[in-house]
Amino acid sequence: MSLPVLPALKRQSNSGHWRIVTTILGLESSCDDTAAAIVREVGGRREILASVVYGQTALHAEFGGVVPEIAARAHAEKMDLCVEEALAVAGLGLAEIDAIAVTSGPGLIGGVLSGVMCAKGIGAATGKPVIGVNHLAGHALTPRLTEGLGFPYLMLLVSGGHCQFLIVEAADRFTRLGGTIDDAPGEAFDKTAKLLGLPQPGGPAVEAEARLGDAKRFAFPRPLLDRPGCDMSFSGLKTALLRARDAVVAENGGLTLQDRRDLCAGFQAAVADVLAEKSRRAIAAYADRGATDPAFAVAGGVAANAAIRSGLEALAVERRVRFVAPPLSLCTDNAAMIAWAGIEKLNAGVIDPEDLVARPRWPLDTSRPALIGSGRKGTKA
Ligand code: KG4
Ligand code: ZN
Question: How many whole angstroms from 9 Cα to the centroid of ligand 2?
Fold first, then answer.
């Protein structure tokens, strides 16, 4: 595969030393966040110079989920503004950018296309190279941006569209140990919120209610814990919640505030238990592969949930593995992770023009069979 011609990376003199400086503009538009960011690596040190996110929550609120056509139009309208704002915040012009990295999949194809077209337009106008980045790789490589974590490490990627355990071996090498066979947990949180009349995105709303609820009142299942391995399932939990809600309504004629809190608490505890137990198995499987000084990292919107996060952290302490959780703003969708993944690809010399083809599906580990199911971002990768 022929590599694009890359301009020589700038070198800066600092008290007599020459250092490699790479400055990348990142674009993200694969779901319901339009984002642009500028990340710089100076002699191995990483800096986020700007990270701008235009969320679309209000646009999709009345539909109870992301409407792909509305999302695509909003991305097309907002991406230019996002880029201008990121450049302004960083105090840079396009001339000072070395390359543009853009999410080219997996995701809702209309949104992915508008990001890729925008990146190609900037590339054509400036002569800068454009790097196609896998959105999941962006999440998976985030702990290296925030903590400088070394390869390899174990990652639980848990969001509205995805849920999988990955061994992150290199910028372009991922081994999937398991994942959801149906819904992603964030999707289950969003559906739970909808069933209980709570606002979207459902995760934060359900978490807030759960804080005041009794997790023991409703007995929700812990799907697939009776089966070996790291695969998970969350669609049955949502059905169990629907049944529990309907039973309360049938008996009492409606839901009280406390009923709703207890339902949220029970649901959240079930998700947290499943994620913790499956993480225990993933850590064991990772150790079996001879991992020395193992690290367990989390990323994705659901990793913002305090109860889930603290369950995973406690597990890491118990198993004596280092726990790494990026700050919340870098757990949810953002373009800094895409810019960083672009730098990783540059550093590893794994830029492939084929990666610039916009695609709805793009599994990180192509050696494993595709996961079943269809989520907020379309068919799962
Ligand atoms: O990573 P992300 O921003 O987008 C995807 O790639 O999907 O994740 C968004 C998902 C939504 O489903 C949202 O409800 C969920 O993450 N989420 C949460 C919390 N904050 C966001 N789920 C549970 N608890 C939270 N605090
Ligand atoms: Zn994401």
Answer: 29
Cα–Cα distance measured from residue 32 to residue 108, given in angstroms and rounded to the nearest whole number: 9
- Three-state SS at 333: coil
Atom in ligand 1 nearest the alpha carbon of residue 190: 14
Q: What is the homologous superfamily of the domain 9-148+332-362 according to CATH?
A: ATPase, nucleotide binding domain (3.30.420.40)
CB 200 within 8 A of CB 67: no
Q: What is the pTM of this model?
A: 0.91
**Max Cα-Cα span within the chain:** 78
Which numbered ligand comes closest to the C-alpha of 272? 1
What residues have their beta carbon closer than 5 A to ion ligand 2? 159, 333
Answer for the pair 66, 32: CB distance below 8 angstroms, yes or no. Answer: yes
- Residue 305 Cα to ligand 1 midpoint, Å, equals 8
Listed by start position, the domains of the chain span 9-148+332-362, 153-329
Locate all alpha helices (DSSP H) within the chain, ordered by sequence. Answer: 57-60, 68-90, 109-126, 135-147, 185-195, 202-210, 235-252, 257-288, 306-319, 328-331, 336-348
Q: Whose CA is nearest to atom 19 of ligand 1?
A: 203
Cα(13) to ligand 2 centroid in Å equals 37
User: Which stretches of the chain score pLDDT less than 70?
Assistant: 1-19, 369-381
Query: For the chain, how many helices (H) and strands (E)?
Result: 11, 13
Apex CA 91: angle with CA 89 and CA 95, to 5°? 125
Pocket probe for ligand 1: among 30, 159, 209, 331, the residue whose CB has the most ligand atoms within 8 Å is 159
Whether the domain at 9-148+332-362 and the domain at 153-329 fall into the same CATH topology: yes
Query: What single-letter amino acid sits at 96?
Result: E
Which residue bears the tokens 């508008």? 114
Any ligand 1 atom below 6 A from CB of 279:
no
Give residue 372's pLDDT: 52
Question: Phi/psi class of residue 93: alpha, beta or left (left: φ > 0; alpha: ψ in -120 to 50)?
Answer: beta
Q: Indicate the SS3 state at residue 314.
A: helix
Please say whether the structural domain 153-329 has been given the CATH code 3.30.420.40: yes
- Please write the tens of the pLDDT for every residue from 20-44: 789 999 999 998 899 999 999 998 8
